[in-house]
Write a structure and sequence with these properties.
Blueprint (H helix, E strand, L loop, with lengths): L3 H4 L8 E2 L4 H9 L5 E2 L16 H17 L5 E9 L2 E3 L5 H11 L3 E15 L4 E16 L4 H9 L20 E5 L2 H5 L3 H13 L15 H8 L5 H9 L4 E2 L20 H21 L2 H8 L2 E2 H8 L3 H13 L3 E6 L2 E6 L1 H6 L9 H15 L2 H7 L4 H5 L15 H23 L9 E5 L5 H9 L4 E6 L1 H6 L12 E5 L12 E5 L7 H14 L5 E6 L10 H6 L11 H9 L3 E7 L6 E7 L5 H6 L1 H10 L1
Parallel strand pairs: 1-2, 12-13, 12-15, 13-14, 15-16
Antiparallel strand pairs: 3-4, 3-5, 5-6, 5-8, 6-7, 9-11, 10-11, 16-18, 17-18
Helix pairs in contact: 4-5, 9-10, 10-13, 10-15, 12-13, 15-18, 18-19
């Protein structure tokens, strides 16, 4: 079953890749699909012991990923994992874990399972009908007998660290494989053949065929899907009408198939954009009024109780809470003949201000600083400049030198925004690569140290110096963790003007996109002089695809008209190559930030300089 006959059936439907994985992107792009990228936030925490087989676990995880994204847009999700000797092997946590995995695979035949769940949503006159189609694909792979030398050579290449099962068959890991039985692309990242067959059944079968009518009353995931419309039917129907119908999501290496418009003459995706700013402002206002904190402290409250605690009118509070329910931020349930509100699991995790992974600080920053700037976007586009002066009555100066930020509370609010992002992204960035060769690191512009603490947690042999402006270092005490790691230290200075601390590894997280090419030349020239051959440079940013089409989050952020710009991996590689740094690895984390690892090359090694750059990018993109 070829995909081309199905493509015409997908017209009017949004197709989304719920992963930044280059493997999935390449497979589906080559098949002719056009898609956007929206990762799932579902954490893979299901108890594997509760499942009878690895593929049951894979399919259920795929479903949960799809359902999480269905709150925002309906998807297809898949989970990629390996099994051998009855064990489920996912991504190795460190080199020893990679060794343990690959040793088990050596000389044996193992199975690669991919679970895929497709959620189909159809609008009816008064309700939304949900159906789930799921399947799995199994491919058998036989490893050759691997010597200790070959095992460690492969592990030290760094390739196993971001791959389920500890190897990538499409890259260096292909040298370990003796034979493959089944769909090769399933091992690479996605079972394209089986997926195309399922699409054919869904879109070419008669309306009452099994592919269109799937009963799931006893299925927990099916119950969860149906519950999305209970108590909030109007809001959920609006979300689905605004652009989606079939979805595919996955967080490790996943895919996504999106929405079917029930009415082809209605521009659902455009209507969704028209209401998008209202949804954002609903989130901002609920956070500003501490709705999520109030509900967290009491578990569940009536409308009147919430209104009293946030000091707002009952009518206004009712409309705000109903809107939040429709967006999947809150739940409304019946208790003793009255309705009460409570946080969803996602709200408890990311929106409660005291949560370890809270985005509250960044949300308030978006409300107080970003929203006013975007209110003047038309002027910004015409002039090609930031509208900071129009929005705030003064020119855009450095946050900690502008008189606008003279009050400590304003400085703390900005730092809290940066702290929020670092807490959510820090672990994934810190574990993106094997950093065991490095003993000392310097987090340039590291603000509160949240990212640095994640690096020391992930790498016991690493100490980190946080280098930032004196005012930042002075105020970081407000964000000190209860149990501070003495391997994290703080040094005050201006990274454009002052000498940088010496280190084996330098970290630039959310720095490069913010500054002009001229200022970056100053910073990177300074780093290049500081670094000896072998010194590492870890860059963490939102990485654009090579066609500069996604992720939209990066392109929308660029509209703030700062002096910097968003870049693709190739553009970052070209920027760093000019200063003697060669790209070695890329990790698309499926979090808010991606990561790239560069190494300072020996300028006297002409062979390295002339031969390494393009090859390293190509290899990195396969990871």
């Amino acid at each position: 079953m070829l995909l081309n006959p199905v493509i015409s059936k997908l017209s009017g439907k949004l197709v989304v890749l719920a992963s930044a994985s280059p493997r999935r992107l390449e497979i589906l792009s080559n098949a002719g699909l056009r898609f956007e990228v929206v990762p799932s936030w579902f954490k893979e925490t299901l108890d594997k012991s509760l499942f009878k087989s690895p593929y049951d676990y894979a399919v259920e995880t795929a479903k949960q990923k799809a359902l999480e994204v269905a709150h925002r847009m309906p998807f297809v999700s898949c989970l990629y994992l390996y099994t051998v000797d009855g064990l489920i092997l996912e991504k190795p946590t460190d080199k020893q874990d990679a060794y343990r995995m690959l040793s088990r695979l050596s000389g044996k035949e193992h199975s690669v399972f991919t679970g895929v769940a497709i959620v189909l949503c159809h609008d009816k006159s008064s309700d939304t009908d949900y159906k789930v189609v799921d399947f799995y694909e199994e491919t058998k792979v036989k490893f050759a007998e691997l010597s200790e030398e070959m095992l460690w050579e492969y592990i030290n290449s760094g390739e196993p660290m971001d791959k389920a099962g500890g190897y990538g068959i499409q890259a260096l890991g292909g040298m370990l494989v003796e034979y493959v039985k089944g769909d090769f692309l399933n091992v690479v990242g996605f079972p394209l053949n089986h997926f195309c067959k399922q699409l054919g059944l869904i879109f070419n079968s008669p309306p009452e065929s099994p592919a269109h009518k799937i009963k799931r009353e006893s299925d927990e995931a099916w119950s969860l899907v149906n519950s999305l419309s209970e108590g909030a039917a109007n809001g959920e129907v609006e979300l689905l009408e605004n652009g989606k119908d079939v979805s595919q999501s996955s967080m490790q290496e996943h895919i996504v198939i999106g929405p079917e418009c029930s009415r082809q003459d209605i521009p659902h995706s455009i209507v969704s954009l028209l209401d998008g700013f209202k949804a954002s402002k609903t989130l901002f206002t609920a956070s500003k009024l501490k709705v999520f904190d109030v509900l967290n402290s009491s578990n569940s409250l009536t409308l009147e109780e919430v209104a009293g605690q946030i000091n707002a009118s009952v009518l206004g509070t009712e409309r705000l809470l109903e809107a939040a329910v429709s967006l999947g931020l809150l739940e409304r349930v019946k208790q003793q003949n009255t309705s009460v509100y409570r946080n969803t699991e996602q709200a408890s995790r990311f929106l409660v201000s005291e949560s370890p992974e809270s985005l509250n600080g960044y949300i308030l920053h978006c409300n107080d600083m970003v929203w006013p700037l975007f209110s003047h976007l038309e002027n910004a586009v015409r002039e090609g400049t930031s509208q900071h002066e129009l929005a705030f009555g003064k020119k855009n100066e450095d946050v900690f030198q502008d008189a606008y930020y003279s009050k400590d509370e304003v400085k703390i609010r900005f730092m809290d925004a940066m702290h929020s992002i670092a807490r959510v992204t820090g672990k994934d960035v810190a574990t993106a690569f094997d950093l065991s060769p490095y003993k000392t690191a310097c987090d340039i512009g590291g603000c509160t140290g949240a990212m640095a603490y994640e690096f020391t947690k992930a790498h016991p042999g690493l100490s980190v110096i946080v280098f930032d402006l004196p005012q930042v270092i002075e105020m970081r005490r407000h964000f000190q963790p209860k149990e501070a790691d003495d391997r994290v230290s703080f040094v005050a200075g201006d990274f454009f003007k002052d000498d940088l601390p010496k280190a084996d590894l330098y970290i630039l997280a959310r720095i490069l996109h913010d500054w002009s090419d001229e200022k970056l030349d100053v910073l990177l020239s300074k780093l290049s002089k500081m670094c000896t051959p072998g010194c590492g440079l870890l860059v963490s940013e939102i990485l654009l695809d090579e066609e500069r089409k996604s992720p939209s989050r990066a392109l929308l952020q660029a509209l703030s008209m700062t002096e910097g710009k968003q870049r693709s991996p190739t553009e970052y590689s070209d920027l760093l190559q000019k200063h003697g740094f060669t790209l070695k690895h890329i990790n698309h984390t499926d979090n808010l930030l991606d990561a790239m690892l560069f190494v300072k090359e020996d300028p006297n090694d002409r062979r390295t300089l002339l031969g390494c750059s393009s090859a390293s990018i190509e290899t990195a993109e396969l990871e």
